[in-house]
User: Fold this.
Amino acid sequence: MEIVSTASSNRFKEKMKEIIETLNSSRRIFVTTHVNPDGDAIGSLVAMGLALFAAGKKVVMYNESTIPTLYRFLSGVDRVTHDPEAIDGCDTAVIIDCGDLHRMGRMAVEMEDFPILINIDHHATNSGFGHYRLIDPKACASAEIVYRIIEELGVSITTSIATALYTGILTDTGSFRFANTSRETFALCEMLVAAGANPSDVARHLYGQYSIGRLKLLNMALDSIEISRNGKLSLMALTQEMLAETGTVPEDIDGMINYARRIENIDVAVLIRENRNGNHLAGNHRPFHVSLRSNGIVDVAAVATTYGGGGHPTAAGFQVEAATLNDIKDRIWALADTL
Ligand code: AMP
Ligand code: MN
Ligand code: MN
Assistant:
């Protein structure tokens, strides 16, 4: 699978041209992102949707999951539907920030014989699905690639679009702290701020307030930390019981893994989260999501890929089923021994 390396390359420009032509000749466009969306997924979805509306297209913005409360301040987010039937009559699908098709959820099956699929992403582990692809692992966020598409579409960047894109970049760069933050990131943000994105407003919405339940959950997450024998791996675990006890939802867990990552001498941090709805699973198996973070030495995307997941070299994840939390912990301790 070909991964386009930088936005300035000729190959990127060629692929961009194909995608712009395809979008221009589409009648009704289905735009979607991954389940349990993060700021980049929501920001890219909203910005792409609003820009296509502005270009005079009929657009359906879809996400399987409910929009996390944190991102509901974005204007245009109320246009996102969760109704799978909204795809009826669409001739083109734009799938953003999904390393593989299944990340979009149940609708992935519908996509198998869909007329035109456009894959827009920045994960180096992208499976290369779709008829057209714009995958740039050097982009700090999918929002960066969406910005370039909007520019090429000739649509002006409104305050709503700028705010959505800025939100995607801010969250995927860990507020400009991660290694994907570059000169281009700031150049892009300079343009977005000029177009109306307000950094202090966005930061206040994203980081300004915590519910008391979230703080109590953080307390439990910190309390759950264990360190591997060799001192290189830290492990946090959160169960459905903990969410119920604190009255929190999965989105409240976002960012907690960073505490485990910051522990001195740690190379890899792991957060195991028990998911809901294990009823369909064989035996007494339960579903879990495992998040991995690296301080730069270990490529956790490679680790996640061996478990059927994916991500970036320093931030990756995968889904796994097991009878008990301890079964997964044992696998993580075995992984720690290899570090
Ligand atoms: P998370 O594990 O949710 O903290 O996500 C960290 C990174 O890994 C993100 O870039 C995700 O896109 C990616 N990721 C998480 N889970 C999966 C999965 N099941 N398959 C592929 N990529 C994933
Ligand atoms: Mn994402
Ligand atoms: Mn992303």
